[in-house]
Amino acid sequence: MKAILVAVLGLLAVCAPAFATQCTVNPVNIPKEWITMQRPCRDSMRRQIQMEVAASLQYLAMGAHFSKDTINRPGFAKLFFEAGSEEREHAMKLIEYLLMRGELTSDVTSLIQIRPPERKSWGTGVEALEHAVKMESDVTKSIRTVISECESDPNFNDYHLVDYLTGDFLEEQYKGQRDLAGKASTLKKMMDRHASLGEFIFDKKLLGVDL
Q: Which residue among 14, 76, 170, 202 is buried most deeply as judged by most CB within 10 Å?
């Protein structure tokens, strides 16, 4: 409440003269020397954000597919819905990073480009998991491209961003890829031995249900 009162008093100080009916605040010029990110690096970061958003939507489509009453694989649906949330969180982290570096002062909404998911149906859980592995591999390659763009610029080697992406993002990507590949391998073996029953059991395991 105190903060709101201070803000109101400040606004009144600006608008007080002659009890003006309109309040205008002159733009403030802030030195730009602290904004050091180079254009190739910034552009590659914007593309990465768009890719994370696209991956989030694709996982959402996968979760919706396995939630259908005709498919009814709640374990797979849970796995993919959670993966979609993680990708959306990644996009938000990258947006927050650009804001911290003084970027995104305009045209922020252009980062959130909604395009239809690449696929909307999968024949089996193995198919979906293999698609997820490929998608995560593509995201990882894209992150490595961002790192390359930001550390090889002759005008400015962006050590901080490279360290952030290498430490926080790449590690999670590699672990996630290994986890999905392991799940796909296990499910393939179960289906080779038990056919559809193998997928049913695997789905229950994804939910933490012991049969």
A: 76
